Structure formats: C-alpha cells, structure tokens
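Please go through this chain and its backbone structure tokens and walk me through the local backbone shapes. Keep your notes short.
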Amino acid sequence: MEIKIELLDDKCSPVRMNEGDSGMDLKSSIDAILLPKSRMLIPVGIKIEIPIGYEAQIRPRSGLAIKNGITILNTPGSVDASYRGFLGVILFNTTDMRFEIKKYDRIAQMVINKIEIPTVLFGKVSETKRGEGGFGSTGLK
C-alpha cells in the first residue's frame, strides 16, 4: 500500500523515528503558544492521499502527554481517504502553564489503518442482556 504526501515545505515531512514504527511523527508548520487549559488547531504542513479502505489516524505523542500535559482533543482524529486538504492537529493544553510550540516540533503521530466499509442494513437488532442497565452497567469490579 502506498500513500502520497504533498509538503508545504521539505522540513514538514513526516518522519518514522525507528524502522518498523507504526506511526510517523507530524511536525508543526508554525510557531505557536498554547495557553493553559486551551486548544488550538496546529497545521502540520502536509496533504495526504490514501487509498479507499484506509484511514489516517492522528494520535498524541506520549512524551508530550506525560512530560508537558499536551494531548489531542479528538483523539484519535480520523482522516478519510477522500480528504485532500492540509492536515491540522487539535492540540489541548491540560496544564496551568503556557506551552510553546516551535515550527517543525514533532507534535503528533499519524498511523495508517486498514478499515472495513460495511454494508448497513436497517431494521430491528437482536436482543441480549447487555445494555439493559445503561452505560457503565457492568460496574468497576
């Protein structure tokens, strides 16, 4: 499977840090300040073309999350095969401190996944005991 990536500039190129990594790190294409408890759409300077039957998932970087409290608000973000615009990442600052993002900082990772596109049938669904008690009905223990 191949994907096509169009770059805003060469330094925005996604990078796989280690051979065999599932994710490619995405880089900010701007300098930005993420204020405490706020969110911001950060452009990553790429467009992608992926085949039908696949999606790109945009996920947080674990180091940013644990060390700085920075995550992605709609994680994972899904990029459909039909989308051709520039990608952006909705970063969220969970802390009480501002966070500085420098141009070309690695801020997220992109994983390409194979997906099933189902045929949807409308009608009554079969019954089970699950769901009778609502959300969380199986408890904690």
The CA atoms of residues 50 and 59 lie 17 Å apart. The two ends are 43 Å apart (CA to CA). The helical segments are 62-68.
